[in-house]
Amino acid sequence: MVEFSRRSVALSASALMALCACGEGEQTPGEVAEEGVESVTFHRDLRPVLEARCNGCHDGSGITPDALDFRDPVQVQALAPVITAAVVGRTMPPWQASGGCNEYKDDLSLSASEIATFVDWEAEGLKLGDPADFVMPDLRPSELGAERLPSEPTLTIRSASPYTPDKSRPDDFRCFAVDPGFEADRFLQGFEVEVDNVSVLHHIVVFAVPGDEETGQLLAELEAEDETPGYSCFGDSRTNVETLAAVWAPGGEKTAFPPGTGLRISKGARFVMQMHYNLSQGGDGQDNSGIKLWFAPEDSPPAREAEMVFIGNLPFEIPSGVNGGTSQSCEGVYALLDDTSMPLTEGINEENLEDPSEIGSGGCVQQDFLYTLTGAEPVEAHAVFPHMHLKGTHIRAEFVPLEIDGEHSRPAPGAEVCLLDTDRWDFDWQRFYWFQQPVKAPVRGSVRLTCRYDTRGASEAVSLGEGSGDEMCLVLLFLTGTR
Ligand code: HEC
Known about the structure:
This protein has 483 residues and is an alpha+beta fold. The protein has 5 helices and 22 strands. The longest helix is centred in the first third of the chain and has 19 residues, at 2-20.
């Protein structure tokens, strides 16, 4: 905020100068000299920010529509109001985590002074300045550890045949099942997306699904629903899921899981690639994008087995016409964390359970998942993946240690450890947030989720479900032991 006011002083000073037609270098009476503050120019001030923070995607290489190539100053001038609105509203760069909650690898968000540069450039008349003033900034290398992965993946998965997204709708969600043919359990250690048709592909979520006969049967039925490859799916895979394996959105980097860890993909498991095709940007043609996957060698499993634990999705019902914005208080419900895959189980305090169907009337739902760690070693979280659908606006995930209150254990007020907080949920930009430092789970604790929704555009009540008109309140945590 400081930057905004400093600039507006400078601006009013120059406006005054113009009015009084004072000579260059002369001080306007009553104004404190703003030494060294010159108006913002494209080449000296804005272009370095664009290069460092935007042009990884907006460089004309196809990740963004051609009309959004920011290397051309005239184009940037023409788009200035849209660009400023996007950075001030923080819809761009695409990064939903709010500051002050936790710190993440490859944080895309802009600092206040970077945002001020956009605002001031526009306010001061979109001056281009001298191209010789441009200094290329140091580009930050990805912090996701991709250099630890060999250049060649263990395997690449993709749909057996290309798919042409359905142009009759703005968004087409399509799932493709792929059998990697694993004859033993394998440990996934990283992934990278191989984009085929960037003009239509917006997003990929990859699930590993069980290799049992029942799931095989279901996948065959889904595949047979229509003539074209794959099957229609929104938000999930429409099957049981063993684990989430990978997530990608435009600009997404090659990702290595934390050193020495791996995610078990069991023998016989299949992958389901959920592709989100966005047709509203004028994209066209077929797509056959693939995902490169890196696994630990069969004979040397990783030291620490990671688990992707799904937490959330207790039933709730939100009436239509409500906005759960920040001021609404949340209706809470307790449940036991029912996940047998991690030592995060052993239930306590079943008497705290309320009827979940009665929560959500204010457009806000708070769910506390109580657990006691039963394993010998402490557990830590390395990443969080939040998930809601189209009416979600805010989601917050916290670890809260439990305190004993009479006969009950309850989340201790004021002891929350924030994992993720967003006040601008965007279904189109779902991703993992990898912590700079892993976060230890309290031994007796709660995973608390707070989800807010805006149902003012809905014609009927919105409840938990898989459809695009339904909602979810869910996070996945990438957990390991600490040794
Ligand atoms: C991780 C990739 C990525 C980065 C980094 C990024 N953008 Fe974008 N941006 C996109 C994509 C992709 C679109 C196309 C629309 C969509 O897919 O949502 C887009 C769309 C836009 C739009 C069009 C309208 C809108 O608001 O969606 C503007 C303006 C924009 N970006 C500005 C910026 C600016 C300014 C920066 C840097 C400060 C930036 N973007 C950084 C990927 C990125």
